[in-house]
Amino acid sequence: MNPSLIAEAADLAPGTALDVGSGEGADARWLAERGWQVTAIDISQVAVDRAREISPGPEITWLQADLVVDAVPGRDFGLVTAHYFPIHVENRGVATKLVEAVGPGGTLLVVMHAPEGVRAHGFDPDDYVQPADFAELLGDGWEIITHETRPRGIAAGGGHHVDDIVLRARRRP
């Protein structure tokens, strides 16, 4: 379970949600338990199959998709959430797809590791779309609710603690 999801989405009225990079589905299950109808997508068919085995109910639709080449499965979501979903800068159109998938009155929630944590694991954060890049895609029809760096509170691989950058924005109705 991603702590930023709890902090940022607990106060939202349930509706339809898109969980991008859902893995084995902890975030999707948390949303479904709170009344959301969730579409959960991951590039890994293995992760999707495992998630479906754990939670086979109708409140979550599990899909395998590669958003570099595939369309977002649906539109006008009340919540689009992407936690630690790496988008290479060459594929920044994926970020545009996610922004466009949020419906009027809906929320976009993007959480990524802060640059120093990414560098500590041997990656260059400049190679990846960051929450600030998502913020630049938002026009006048959006309100940024949260855009900050905060402690993750959970150790990353190797016990290394990292900070997260959290962007929560609401599309005006």
TrEMBL record:
Residues 18-106 form the Methyltransferase domain. Signal peptide: none annotated. It holds the Pfam family Methyltransf_25. GO terms for molecular function: methyltransferase activity. GO terms for biological process: methylation. Keywords: Methyltransferase, Transferase. It comes from the Bacteria. This is Putative methyltransferase. It comes from Gordonia aichiensis NBRC 108223.
